[in-house]
Design goal:
Elements: E1 3-4, E2 8-11, H1 14-23, E3 24-25, E4 28-30, H2 38-50, E5 53-55, H3 61-73, E6 78-79, H4 100-108, E7 111-112, H5 122-127, H6 134-143, H7 151-160, H8 165-174
Parallel strand pairs: 1-3, 2-4, 2-5, 5-6
Antiparallel strand pairs: 6-7
Length: 178
C-alpha cells in the first residue's frame, strides 16, 4: 500500500505528477514550468491554509525560480529537495528523471522554513569555514536536506530552517566532517 501524503505537492508538470502518484497516494498541483500564474498561486495559498503544501521542483534554475515565486507569496510552505546528481536523465534534468529512492527521501525529509528570526549570524557562518570549502557546504546541504546552492543561499536556508551554529557543529561531528 502506498504511503498517503496529506499535503498537496507542487510540481512542474504532468510527468512529475505521474511519478509522485506512482510512489505515493498524493495530490499535486502543476505549475506548467515557469508559466506559473496568479490563479495557481491563489490555489497554492488557499491549500496551504487547509492541507499544507510541499514544493518539489526540478533542481535547476527554473525550478529555483518557481520555488522562489511561491515562497514570496506563501512563505511557510514546506520544501522537498532532490539532488541534481539524483535527477539526471538521458537528456533532461528533473523530478520525472529522478531516482525513485531520491524522491521518496526528499518527501520523507521535508524542510519547513521560517523568516521570523535569525538562528545563525553571518559571523558564525563564516567561522564554520563553509564559504571556501565546497565539500563542506555540499555536506551541510545534504545533512539538513536543504537542496543545493551557493554559500549565500545556504546561509539563507539555514536561517529559514532555524538551524543554529551548534546544530551544524553537532551534525558535522556526528558524521566526522568537521
Amino acid at each position: 500500500m502506498k504511503k498517503k501524503i496529506k499535503e498537496v505537492i507542487v510540481v512542474e508538470g504532468k510527468t512529475d505528477t505521474a511519478v509522485i502518484q506512482k510512489l505515493f497516494d498524493a495530490d499535486t498541483i502543476e505549475t506548467h514550468g515557469l508559466a506559473l500564474d496568479e490563479a495557481t498561486l491563489d490555489l497554492i495559498e488557499e491549500l496551504e491554509k487547509t492541507r499544507g503544501v510541499i514544493i518539489l521542483t526540478d533542481p535547476d534554475y527554473p525550478g529555483m525560480r518557481i520555488r522562489n515565486m511561491i515562497m514570496e507569496r506563501v512563505p511557510h510552505v514546506k520544501q522537498a529537495f532532490v539532488d541534481k546528481k539524483d535527477a539526471i536523465g538521458k537528456k533532461k534534468l528533473g523530478i520525472a528523471e529522478a531516482r525513485e529512492e531520491a524522491i521518496i527521501q526528499a518527501l520523507e525529509n521535508v524542510v519547513s522554513f521560517s523568516k521570523e528570526s535569525q538562528s545563525l549570524t553571518w559571523e558564525e557562518f563564516i567561522s564554520l569555514d563553509i564559504i571556501g570549502d565546497k565539500q563542506k557546504r555540499l555536506a551541510i546541504y545534504d545533512l539538513f536536506h536543504l537542496g543545493y546552492g551557493n554559500a549565500k543561499t545556504l546561509f539563507k536556508r539555514l536561517n529559514m530552517a532555524s538551524i543554529t551554529k551548534q546544530d551544524i557543529l553537532n551534525k558535522l561531528k556526528a558524521y566526522n566532517l568537521q
